[in-house]
């Protein structure tokens, strides 16, 4: 509840939050801003996309365990957004999570990683309208965590952006 009140006090309109089905443990978060010099921001302007909609589900023991976060719309390519809208960010894993993180801080980190990972709005015919699914996102996230636990979380070379 405290997190929700803090977000409503944000003056910069960076994000806005609505409870999903009046459930305090599930939020739909609208990310209104990414770096205005990025290709993603340009895509958002060209496609009249006002925000990136995410769904965040909090575990019972939050903030001691990370929330599950996924992109709902628009369909994105790259930017560390994978199948089902799963998000590849170490801080969303039990190993990378800190109970000191706020939802605002996580969203700011996500916005930065979208740009760093050269995220773009998908415009491929047939694919761009296909909705992300929660089941697919959960399976993808579980798989990526397993891969990173085995091989580590490495930063891509500078040449990769």
Automatic annotation (TrEMBL):
Q: So which residues are the signal peptide here?
A: none
From the Swiss-Prot or TrEMBL record, give the protein name: U2QL1 protein
Q: Please list the residue ranges annotated as the UBC core domain.
A: 1-154
CDD domains named among the record's database cross-references: UBCc_UBE2Q
């Amino acid at each position: 509840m405290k997190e929700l009140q803090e977000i409503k006090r944000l003056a910069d309109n960076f994000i806005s939050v609505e409870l999903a089905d009046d459930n305090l443990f599930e939020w739909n978060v609208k990310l209104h801003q990414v770096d205005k010099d990025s290709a993603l921001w340009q895509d958002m302007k060209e496609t009249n996309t006002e925000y990136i909609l995410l769904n965040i589900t909090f575990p019972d023991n939050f903030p001691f365990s990370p929330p599950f976060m996924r992109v709902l719309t628009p369909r994105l390519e790259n930017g560390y957004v994978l199948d089902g809208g799963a998000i590849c960010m170490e801080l969303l894993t039990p190993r990378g999570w800190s109970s000191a993180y706020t939802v605002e801080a996580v969203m700011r980190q996500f916005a930065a990683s979208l740009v760093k990972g050269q995220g773009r709005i998908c415009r491929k015919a047939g694919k761009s309208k296909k909705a992300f699914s929660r089941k697919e996102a959960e399976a993808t996230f579980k798989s990526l965590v397993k891969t990173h636990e085995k091989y580590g979380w490495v930063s891509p070379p500078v040449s990769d952006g």
